Amino acid sequence: MPRLFIALATLLIALAALSLRGAEDTPPAPVGPKAKLHPALHLVGDSTMADKPVDKPNPERGWGQLFPSLVKEPARIVNHAVNGRSTKSFRAEGRWENVMSQLEADDYVLIEFGHNDEKKEDPTRYAAADNDFKDNLRRFIREVRAQGAIPLLATPVNRRKFDDKGQLTDTHGAYPDATRAIAAEEKVPLIDLHKLTHSLLEKLGPEGSKSLFVWVKPGEYAIHPKGRQDDTHFNEKGARAIAELVATELRAQKIPIAAWLK
Questions:
Q1: What are the angstrom distances between the C-alpha of 140 and each of 30, 86, 105, 217, 261?
Q2: pLDDT tens profile 204-253
Q3: What residue ranges define each of the domains in the chain, with the CATH number in brackets?
């Protein structure tokens, strides 16, 4: 009997040793899902969207500069917008290529142009609304989709231009409708900032709407010693108001990135 107990004890010790050796050779089980970088929202457009310098007192802001303040962590907003660019010059200068180099599957790209495409006097930027402009938007959309990302379009924001009767006057001609047409054709979500800002500016009126734009008095900012009356570019209040219009529209259309909003 003692010999049987000794034999059983020896067998159990051997099995335990084998078990421990196997455990050492087995890689540890994962403690959770593999970390994945949060999808990004890439903003592509002109000065009305672009980041503006803040190192020196400067009243001007783009709405894309204020949009990150409306989203929760770990949402990523990458603002590629640059002053003075059109659908034509943004690509010609290699800026679109830079966006594509950063784009990953499931990212979003919100594209807003029109302010500078309409400038016939500048062949480096001009893109006719009914052909070149539409073609450029189509190409942007298809290249974004080819990388597994999601394109969004926005019509250009309105300038502050009122007639003698206090009615807001459109300055963008066929470009908003061209953007709407491509959004419908390509089945792309559309943020109709042209329509939304028209309503906002008309509600505020000729005087009240000045509070959204870079209207500064002489000496108020060193960057504008003679003052400035700018009816195209926003101050911080105006940029935030436009960013909030975008956020509201994302929610209204139930676009998935609305979940990133605070």
A1: 40, 12, 15, 40, 25
A2: 999 999 999 999 999 999 999 999 999 999 999 999 999 999 999 999 99
A3: 40-260 (3.40.50.1110)
